[in-house]
Amino acid sequence: MRIDIITVLPELLESPLNHSIIKRAKQKKHVEIFIHNLRDYTTDKHKTVDDYPFGGEAGMVMMIEPIDKAIAKLKTEREYDEVIYTSPDGEPFIQKEANKLATYNNIIILCGHYKGIDQRVRDHLITKEISIGDYVLTGGELAAAIIVDSVVRLLPGVISDETSALTDSFQDNLLSAPVYTRPAEYKGWKVPDILLSGNFKEIDKWKEQQSIERTKKLRPNLFEDE
Ligand code: ADE
Questions:
Q1: What is the per-residue pLDDT across 123-180, written as a single tens digit (0 to 9) for each?
Q2: Alpha-carbon dihedral of residues 158, 160, 166, 170, nearest 10 degrees?
Q3: pTM of the entire structure?
Q4: 129 CA distance to ligand 1 centroid (A)?
Q5: What's the pLDDT tens digit per position in 174-226?
Q6: Ligand 1 in contact with 131 (CB < 6 A)?
Q7: Minimal CA–CA distance to 126: which of 70, 181, 205, 51?
Q8: Residue in 7, 11, 61, 70 with CA at minimum distance from that of residue 41
């Protein structure tokens, strides 16, 4: 898979996409991630990417021209399955969407910034808008990092334990069962006996029950979303 991210703040994406599992996924060529500085697609000496809104509202608006140029250049090189814009007014990002994106070959993610973006970008250049939650960030870079992280870990071969991505919370609209490691007792706080029993059939049953109970208690809405 190839992911192209267009941003005015490339530095913000460097750390989240260059460590741990994502770093390894890149090294092993499971994914290629290219970060493009939108200012490289400007034509004036100040490298302007935003301007005052028509109609006189507060705040600056991202201009269409550099964005159009950046996307057009990428599109001359390959076809894209989706051109995503990160925005609080997008579709809420859920596991199902991450699963779908993980099946694509090429995607572009345009990070939103400032007050907003010229509506013509959304009308003509973007194929999908994604929000990572009902709150407003200073920009779309952290949202893009979250989307990329959740997608890359699903790519075949990225997580060595093949089943582990599939047993994640949310993969079946259930939260995961609790997990424990050594010591079996710490300050009198004990690991449930069943996990030490060696009876894997019973352990699986217990895990499933825990998943259902935790989901009922903590996220009952996940049952309604089915
Ligand atoms: N940009 C600012 N806030 C955002 C959010 N909640 N999701 C995606 N992009 C954003």
A1: 999 999 999 999 999 999 999 999 999 999 999 999 976 566 766 777 788 999 999 9
A2: -70
A3: 0.93
A4: 10
A5: 999 999 999 999 999 999 999 999 999 999 999 999 999 999 999 999 988 65
A6: yes
A7: 70
A8: 70
Q: How many CB atoms lie within 10 A of CB 203?
A: 16
Distance 128 CA to ligand 1 centre (A): 13
pLDDT, position 126: 98
Domains of the chain: 2-152 (3.40.1280.10), 167-224 (1.10.1270.20)
Q: Residue 35's closest CA among 1, 63, 60, 10? A: 10
Quick check: CB of 106 below 6 Å from ligand 1? no
Q: Is the C-beta atom of 116 inside 6 A of ligand 1?
A: no
Establish whether the linkage from the previous residue to 156 is cis, with ω within 30° of 0. Answer: no
Mutation pick for ligand 1 pocket among 62, 87, 91 (CB with most ligand atoms within 8 Å):
87
Q: Which atom of ligand 1 is found nearest the CA of 86?
A: 9
Please indicate whether residue 125, judged by its CB atom, sits closer than 6 Å to ligand 1.
no
Cα 198 from Cα 202, distance rounded (Å): 9
Ligand 1 midpoint to CA 132 (Å): 6
